[in-house]
Amino acid sequence: MEFYGTLGDACWERETLEALFRAGMTGARLNLSHTTLEACAPLLEERFWPAARQAGVEAKLIVDLQGPELRVGTLKEPVSLAEGAEVLLGAGGIPVPAAALAAARTGDEISLDDSALLLTVVEERPDALLCQVERGGLLKSRKSMAILGVQPDTPALTEEDRRNLDWAARCGVTDVLQPFVRGAEDLAVLRGALAERGLERVRVMAKIENQLGIEKLDEIIDASDVICIARGDLGNSMPLWELPAAQKGIAARCRTAGRSFFVVTQLLWSMEQRAVPTRAEVCDIYNAVLDGSDALMLTGETAAGRYPVQAMEYLVKTARSALSTGRAG
Q1: Where in the chain is the domain with CATH 2.40.33.10?
Q2: Which end of the chain is more exposed for a tag (fewer CB within 10 A), N or C?
Q3: pLDDT tens, 226-250?
Q4: Given 71, 143, 182, 191, which residue is catalytic?
Q5: Cα(157)–Cα(67) distance, rounded to whole angstroms?
């Protein structure tokens, strides 16, 4: 079974990376919505790969592209959004993609940072959206954004994605995560871009993050190498209490098709701040393994959390405990 962490400030030190590998990590994700492969190349060469070799791990390096995902732009500093206040998205306010401005309509709900914050559009302007804050909090740069129930018209790959793929071979990329896959066509675009760069052997991982991905799951399974059940934005696309059934359903369809899959998002979310996980979190991990997940991935727990190595230890030990009891057939 594979165990992935996400690279970030909390784990970039070589000693921490080596400790993660010794704890059982078999590979790492690099989120290219926040950086570029070119910028990370020195850190990968000087820290990531040496740490893996020192720990005796033949590591995988997964890059998570931007794809059709919506994110807020770069902010000079975090913005505090107070419940009941009005906030402007677009010109003169918080920068957001043009596709979001074109797609949103008055009355639409917009979730930010995996639904940590929620806005309602109260007025459409030529180059902005006036919104009311329904659920407030602190908004940081490059956080995820979703217009609930709306699919904006965005390309499968951005120009930045293509520039990142230019660096994939020299950085040792083994897998590519394609966000918000809407059907086999998105994956065909990605495979074409990989083939143009001589990267046919790189595995294509399809992230299921919305209702369209579930509707087109059969063709996505056929067109991908691995399915990623990405519960953050997937949970934005439905009432949250329906997410467990959606996860179970995707897992069952992957098992039937013989397609590898893995689960990600908030597996050990509390460990970003606490040294010990909740009982619910370890049960979540255990059940994902029993459902047949071939891998598990931590995100903020290793990228920005206070206890990255401890989180990996709990992930690996809990999963191995589940493996010892037997899994779904």
Answers
A1: 72-147
A2: C
A3: 999 999 989 988 999 999 999 999 9
A4: 71
A5: 5
